Structure formats: C-alpha cells, structure tokens
User: Fold this.
Amino acid sequence: MEEIWIERYRPKSFDEIYGQDAIVARMKAFVQRNNVPHLLLAGPAGVGKTSMVLVIVHALYGEQWRENFLELNASDDRGIDVVRTKIKDFAKTLAIGNVPFKIILLDECDSLTPEAQQALRRTMESYSSNCRFLLSCNYSSKIIDPIQSRCTIFRFKQLDKQALERLVERIVKQEGLKLKTGGFDALYLVAGGDARRAANILQSCAALDKSITPEAIFQLSGSAQPREVQEILQLAVGGSFIKSRNLLLDVMLKRGLSGLDMVKHFQREILGLPVAEEQKMKMIEGCGEIEFRMVEGSDEFIQLEALLARFYHGKEQGK
Ligand SMILES: Nc1ncnc2c1ncn2[C@@H]1O[C@H](COP(=O)(O)OP(=O)(O)O)[C@@H](O)[C@H]1O
Ligand SMILES: [Mg+2]
Assistant:
C-alpha cells in the first residue's frame, strides 16, 4: 500500500511547519537553550500540534530520540491507569545524552474526565524532575486549571490560505500533480485551514487522476460545489420551491451529504447571494433554527424543506 501523504509530508524541521511562525520562533528558543517547559498545545485538528512535538524531539535528541520520547494517547480506552503505568515505566530511567529530561507527549488530553486529569496532574508532579509533559488538546478550556497553570500554553491557528498553499505546492511538485484552475481555491474552501484534511483530499484525488479539478475535490471531499448550493438558494428565493427542493435532494444524494452538512453550506453561500442584507440576516437566522432542530433529532429533510419555504417567505417580508 502506498504511504499516506500526511506521513510522507509530515514536517521534518521547524521550517516545514507553515503558518505558526510565532510559535515556531519560541519553540526554537526552547530547543536552543536545551530547556523545554511543560507545554499545552491547543488548537483544531490538522494544524501541526503533533508535528511540532516531533520536530522538537528530533531537534533535541537527534539519533537518540527514541530512547527519550514517549508518545501516548491520553484517552487510551484502557483508562488513565494504563497511561500512568506507561509513564512510570518510562520515567524511572534517566534521559540518555546531553538533554537532562525526557519528553512525554500526551495527545487528546481534553477527552479525559476532570478526575482523570487530576490523576494526570499528580503524575506530572511526580516525574517533573526528569520529564517534560507536552499535552495536546482541541480546547484548552476543557483542561483543569492545575494542569493549565503548570504548562506554557500555545494556541495553534488554522492555516491561512498562504500557509496551506505552501504545503499544497510542495505536494503538487513532488507528486507530479497538476492542479487545475480553481483547484486550490476549492481545496481551501473544503479543507479550511486543516492541513491534514487538505493532504488527504489531494491524495484521494490523485489516486484517480494526477490532473486535479475543483469538481474532483468537491466530489471526493463529500462537499457540495458552491455553484450548486447557490442554485438551490436562488431557486428557493425566487419562489421555485419544487425545483429547489429537487435539486437539494439530488445534491445530497450525489455527494452523500447530511442535512447538517447542507445547512452549513447554506450558511456559507447565503452571504454571497444577490439579495438585500436584511434578507440574508433572516435566512441565516432560519439556518440557525433549523440546525438546532436537527441536532434535537427532527427529520432532516422535512426541516430542510421548511427552510427553503422560509427563504421565499423571508424575501416577501424583507421587502
Ligand atoms: N502547520 C503545518 N504545516 C505543514 N503541514 C502541516 C501543518 N499542520 C499539519 N500539517 C500536515 O498535516 C499532517 C498532520 O498534522 P498534525 O501535526 O498531526 O496535526 P494536529 O496534531 O494538529 O492534528 C502533517 O503530517 C502535515 O502533513
Ligand atoms: Mg495531533
């Protein structure tokens, strides 16, 4: 099987981590001083949190990184006790080489219950003399204060367009791909600033054809084309309810999208509709309400139909 691209293109040095410049600068300084504090790396998926830790580890330990580094998933199904036992076994021997501490990466710490986090905090205290704990999470607010206060917190951002472009260019060049007109914009639209998702989508597209069109990107990412969504909305606003509803059903089936996916697409595309501001507001409001009902479990398609009907209604009232 071919190697997955998120591994093939995992940053190997600080220079290959794009779009997190301020964080990179501080991490470099830690490494230069041979002194890394406990760290809490917070931020959304696919923005370089794990990669950053691996780069630090390689920069600090070089060849001996394996002996000095332990990677654990904090939410190991076997429980926090298993995690603690592994930490204990790893921490009882001293670091090898010039760096006076070992590094433990604990991924997904926000999935731990507060009780498990308390247990983790005690473990951190016991082994602070020869270990640094590097924790990753999506939301720092889900981490208990006693852990937060022991760590230096870094907030990772989603990659901006330029940063994502650097990664995409690297992949395109090395894999001999051709990204057709509008391809990068489509990729940025569907992946947002999630570099992992972007790399995965590129790989699935390339498996079919090395020449990558926006259409292929929307297709393989399970995402509707902005053009299709615009058409659904315009039909609804124009009062062509049945046509709008049929196209909606068509797009959902063809792209394998859920009702919630569609509402998100609507929210994004409403902003660009050629209608009055006031009407846009009403439409967005409608999306919010329907989204809530869907989450509460009402029938998705009925809710979507009601939403389309409201878009027309909203127009009449808006005038
Ligand atoms: N800032 C970034 N710069 C370059 N590539 C990135 C970046 N963030 C993520 N990636 C790509 O996505 C993959 C997964 O990143 P990872 O560090 O595991 O993300 P996280 O831990 O934040 O979910 C990397 O191997 C790399 O291909
Ligand atoms: Mg990670």
Observations:
- The two ends are 59 Å apart (CA to CA).
